[in-house]
User: Fold this.
Amino acid sequence: MSTISLKIEFGGGLELLFSNQRSYRIDVPSLVPTDNSTNASSLAGKETKPVDVNYLIHHMRDHMLKERVELFMENDTVRPGILVLINDTDWELEGEGEYPLKDGDEVVFISTLHGG
Assistant:
């Protein structure tokens, strides 16, 4: 199975949910299940699609997030107040979760939510 390599970064305190690590380099499959399931056996007999940001978010939840999923995800996407940049461009300009990831892409998640 072929994979693509990505750089993931966190800011605004979001790194606290991910082992207090601000930057990761990860490999994800180039083809993934259309339902975004992330376990290794999930491809067997399922429809596939090219890997996209929606899958990446699920992968991060299932394999990288260490605590408090509700602070990262809501309704199968990142929660409101988290800015997502794909190669330094707002993901809203790139198609949001449907953006097809490419080898070498950099995805940055920045929390704009702060207590007071």
Summary: The first helix runs from residue 53 to 63.
